[in-house]
Amino acid sequence: MTRTSLRSLFAILFVFALAAVPLTGCDETTTDTTGTGGDGDGDGDGDGDGDTTLDMLIATSEFSACAGCHAPGAPGFVDGTTEATQDWTNADTALTTLMGTASGLGGLSESCNGVPFIGSSLDSSLLIAAFDENVRANFDVMGFPDCTGAAIGDMTLQIGTALSAATETLLETFVQEQIDANALYAEDPSWAYDHWAFDHE
């Protein structure tokens, strides 16, 4: 397969990945960070160090319970209430599904179906809004006028605590990294291929 073909294939796969917030009744479950990157560290980059921001975020006490609702067969998943596409089994599945949009939400939160978890800014990212009261109150994404305020589930109620300052910083850093990567990809799709190929060699 030529490099151009590989780039085209990767671009197609990336678009499909973009095509994943409220939780309810999440059980305390530790996320498996063994990952699928072939190195067992959960960050999918093949280097074995497990030091990505997402790895560190999943290791926090607040985010380690996410797989209790957001994973295949999760005991805390409630159809029509729990967002249906996120998979926090490990860092690789979390990253892939967080590149998508919310779906499977019912009731008041139904208006948030289709909203990106990672937006074009921190304030337009549903993942941030789910944990930040101020972002929720002012959330405004074009095409989703009713996805704001109470329509966005307060995940701090689900995990039983507000995020610590350190975890909040990790969350914001992770989301900003993805925003920056998406911007680079939009400017030059070959950047994503070259970056992916380098990390997986």
Structural description of this entry:
By secondary structure, this protein is mainly alpha-helical. It has one domain. It is 39% helix and 0% strand. It contains 8 helices and no strands. It has helices at residues 3-18, 53-58, 91-98, 126-129, 133-137, 155-159, 165-187, 189-200. It is globular. The two termini are 16 Å apart. The model is unreliable at 1-48 and 195-201 (pLDDT under 50).
Task: Briefly say what this structure is.
By secondary structure, the chain is an all-alpha fold. 39% of the residues lie in helices and 0% in strands.
Shape: globular
Helix content: 25-40%
Low-pLDDT ranges: 1-48, 195-201
Quote the distance from N terminus to C terminus.
Answer: 16 Å
Which structural class matches the secondary elements? mainly alpha
- Biggest sheet, in brief? none
Instruction: Tell me the count of domains.
Output: 1
Order of helices and strands: HHHHHHHH
- Let me know the average pLDDT: 77
Strand tally: 0
Total number of helices? 8
Radius of gyration: 17 Å
In terms of DSSP E residues, the strand content is under 5%
Question: Which helices and strands appear, and what pairs or packs with what?
Answer:
Layout: H1 3-18, H2 53-58, H3 91-98, H4 126-129, H5 133-137, H6 155-159, H7 165-187, H8 189-200
Helix pairs in contact: 1-8, 7-8
Features:
disordered C terminus; single chain; 39% helix; 8 helices; mainly alpha; globular; disordered N terminus; 201 residues
